[in-house]
Amino acid sequence: MSHSTNASSSSASPSAQLDFSRLAPYGWDDDWAAAYADAVADARTAAPDPLPGRVVRVDRGQCDLVTPAGTLRADTEFVVPRDPMKVVCTGDWAVVDADGAPPYVRTLLPRRTAFARSTSSKRSEGQVLAANVDHALIAVSLGAELDLGRIERFLSLAWSSGASPVLVLTKADLVPDTATLAHLTADAETSAPGVQVLPVSAETGEGVDVLAAVLAGGTTALLGQSGAGKSTLANALLGRSAQTVQTIRDRDGKGRHTTTTRNLLPLPAAGGGGTLIDTPGLRGVGLWEAEEGLGQAFAEIEELAARCRFHDCAHDAEPGCAVLAAVEDGTLPERRLVSYRKLLRENVRLAARTDARLRAEQRQVFKQRQALGRHMMERKRGPRRKP
Ligand SMILES: Nc1nc2c(ncn2[C@@H]2O[C@H](COP(=O)(O)OP(=O)(O)OP(=O)(O)O)[C@@H](O)[C@H]2O)c(=O)[nH]1
Ligand SMILES: [Zn+2]
């Protein structure tokens, strides 16, 4: 590294005071250090004055990163590829070139996980909401009737990201008695095989410490419908009410959420540490390449399916279908099978839309190549004479 040793420099030069312990609360570990060293050693991504940093906030063309030199605002234009899935996103670890004015993000370190969703627009493309998430914290309110289908949808999405889902049933204080709470928790567990289900109340503090311990050390992304209690839970976990999540609430009473920025915040060391990413309320969340996640969200169905007589069994009316047999004998709630089918169908539709988009893009590239080919031919032949 070529850090300036100019002691007289009183400016906030990024290389002035490097303190790698600044990265520790943000999850810096030996593996990230190794990935960073690789990126810096690579001629394609080397930078004159490189620093590692974690993206804590993204704006148009710029982002804030926590680095050993403190928090830097850096340009991201050098790493804006055509693929929207590779755009700099909250939670990314990056190599920052501190030599630039302003500093700029040189490259992203390979992501461990990526939280993506399909945009709700007609143009079907993925949008990365958060990178390097360990725990996908799905908040579902006990203040309303449990929507198991919605839970399954969130779980599929969470599993697809590579993060481990944790299901929190918020507003537990609104449930009148413990028997009802136990019943609701059991219902949620049926829809979340292999997932920890925790009732919590930000109001009374019930379950918050247990949750903090589950999330300790890792990066957590908070997901859930608008009004599920995410911000309130984030405040409880962060241990302060001065929420740095910038939410501009709609005052017209429609409750449209207009969260404009995403933030990554360190959790208190006393609770075990870790970081929290608060994304805008995921309304009408879509599936994005969630087929793998579906398999995990419906793990017990996949297990049964392995025992069907036909390997391509659609669990419709086939003889020797282990899934239908389980529905028949009551070991698999029929609702689970219906929900699984619905999400599978949805995913297939989405995949088809993506394919259509890719085909259109390929046509575009082909047309450009044709045009370029014509251009090159003309150059070889010289400008065409006007008759
Ligand atoms: N009784 C009770 N109410 C809660 C609890 N947590 C949140 N609430 C209330 O639920 C409402 C929604 O909470 P928020 O934290 O704003 O929900 P959100 O998920 O962040 O909503 P969006 O920002 O729209 O995505 C607020 O009126 C909170 O006061 C809780 O533990 N108990
Ligand atoms: Zn079957």
TrEMBL record:
GO terms for biological process: ribosomal small subunit biogenesis. GO terms for cellular component: cytoplasm. Residues 123-285 form the CP-type G domain. It comes from the Bacteria. GTP binds at T170, K171, A172, D173, G224, Q225, S226, G227, A228, G229, K230, S231, T232. CDD domains: YjeQ_EngC (cd01854). One of its GO terms (molecular function) is GTP binding. SUPFAM superfamilies: P-loop containing nucleoside triphosphate hydrolases. Monomer. Associates with 30S ribosomal subunit, binds 16S rRNA. Belongs to the TRAFAC class YlqF/YawG GTPase family. RsgA subfamily. This is Small ribosomal subunit biogenesis GTPase RsgA. It comes from Streptomyces diacarni.
